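Reposting from the mailing list since nobody answered there.

I have sequence plus structure tokens for a pair of proteins and want to know whether others read the tokens the same way I do. The first protein:
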Amino acid sequence: MTDARVQETPGPSGAPLHLRIREDIERRIRSGAWPPGHRVPFETELMGQYGCARMTVSKAMTALVEAGLIVRRKRAGSFVARPKVHAPVLNIPDIQAEIEARGEAYAFRLLARVVRDADREAPGEVELASGGKLLALDGVHDAGGRPFALERRLVALAASPQMDAEDFAEITPGAWLLEHVAWTEAESRISAVNANAEVARLLALDEGAACLMVDRRTWREGRGVTRVRQIFPGDAYDLVARFGPSA
């Protein structure tokens, strides 16, 4: 019966089946076996291939959409996305060091600290947690006594269990991670946003003010370490990239 497949079971590698489906599809895309524009099998086809429920396939497909690897077209199906050009604009910055280098006083205010399970409806959180707990941290970086950036961070305690005991009175979460957990891969996405009521209050802005959001994820040998969203007032932060001619 179809209902017997609702519970997701691990694949042979021990990873949840939706992760294995995602990895299989991603491997075909990155290897070039499925070029841009190639139609990905329909969800019903993948359900039959992997012997699983639609929910499991949907989790895998949603994660691939979020990663920019596939696009969904209404009534047509899912297709391999055409690659976008990404420029390496940012390293992993130490905000405290940058502010102090400008000669301004720095402070970090921790607003919230919670250890929790991943939201099962958010594939990105489930992948980051790797079966463990998440440490959720909200805080504000101040420069010269004024709010400089709002930070909302999730940390996989499976990757950094010692962080659970840190109170961040003497060190910021980002600086702690830079010191204690070496990362091997990072991704930054940069976008313009307008301050909602909460962001405006925390950053001392007018509601609707222009802001810059940096959404960054880091991994260590394929396992998630942290995901952080930092929101800066539009006039407080510059992104600078310096390039030379290619060989």
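The second protein, same order (residues first, tokens after):
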Amino acid sequence: MAKTAGSVSGRQGSSSRSNSSKGNAFKCTECGWTTAKWVGRCGECQAWGTVEEVGTVVARTTAASSVTVPASKIADIDATESAYLPTGVGELDRVLGGGVVPGAVVLLAGEPGVGKSTLLLDVAAKFARNNGTVLYVTGEESAAQVKLRAQRINAMADSLYLVAENDLGSALGQVEQLKPRLLVVDSVQTLSSAEVEGSAGGVTQVREVAASLIAAAKRLNMTTLLVGHVTKEGSIAGPRLLEHLVDVVCQFEGERQSRLRMLRAAKNRYGPTDEVGCFDLSEQGIEGLADPSGLFISRTKEPVSGTCITVALEGKRPLLAEVQSLLAKSLTSQPRRATSGLDSSRVAMLLAVLQQRTKANLSEVDSYVATVGGVKLTEPATDLSIALAVMSANTGKPLPARLIAFGEVGLAGEVRPVPGINQRIQEAHRLGFSHAVVPASPHGPGPVPEGFSVREVHQLSDALGLLFP
């Protein structure tokens, strides 16, 4: 009997395993990756907790259908329909590569309160004045609230239409009626479709809303600007598929305590992704900054020790920024190392290089190194300016006026070449600087403006010997 029971239970176990192997499958809600059994982490996009049971996955095939639009030779296709249209906002056009493309879908993401709605309302008004009908769909505010903001920032236009709508079908009905050249949706997480289940902002709803808006944009050759929310980690909320569907993904960044805002393109099918747009956000609205370098440099009548001007490259744009350093005698056995706007680990490395390679006594002082204006400097080209600012604070001697310095500093104390040396020099000369300490390059610094002095250095000790003899 025991053997019979065991054989029966064995057959039941094998039957249950067989049923489980033919049972429901599991799918990642972010990227669509499927697996036969549940896992906590997606094997494709590495997202946690996004694998859900969706039912049996059956392989299907689609039969060929009759051709309605025959294929054309690529040489015979008219590309003038996809020519750039300037938006009227120069900094946005710079990031997009010259303007918006008809039929393109642009996703603008950023933290709450950074100014996404203000920027797009300004874009909508200026585009309407120059290019025709614009429809602004808001799902987060009432039409009256948006109008008050438009009046405050002078974003009124006769051909700018506004509707407060949360239903996708009604919004698409407005699009079919007006047929605008530009559609602004604020935001894609607030619209919902009655055709699918789930609440607004859910994965299924965001996917359906985005797919419907993209289909309408391509069919009507209508440029579409979508506002997207971000998560706590700073990534775009919703399914990752959303970023793959749209043509352009832009990130709008800025600190709440600062008026400076920066726009970067993370994805651009029609232009570069290494350009940066700078904006000034105030109560009167948002304005593009063609020359934002003045925000990152302090204005003092007399030179002050512990400061050094550098030129950083944000994309292709050179920006002058000031690095400040303050050294104070430490009251503890372990000196404090504080930074603002700079990579703390890189500053600690430079302090170690200065102490070891130049014999500077920095082990008994607290060091405070920061940038001016809240700008964040991440590229290695700022190493030399940080080192010179620290040594200026250590010796109490200010650096010469109208001097800039840039270059990467290695652990051996060498100063390595950086990209765009001549571009940085030209920008410094345009803003009134006359001296530069730069890394030695095999090709030299390039053509130097008249009256501009350039000193190339191979080692950090060479730069210190030049400025602190």
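Reply #1 (J.P.):
I read it the same way you do. Residues 22-56 form one domain.
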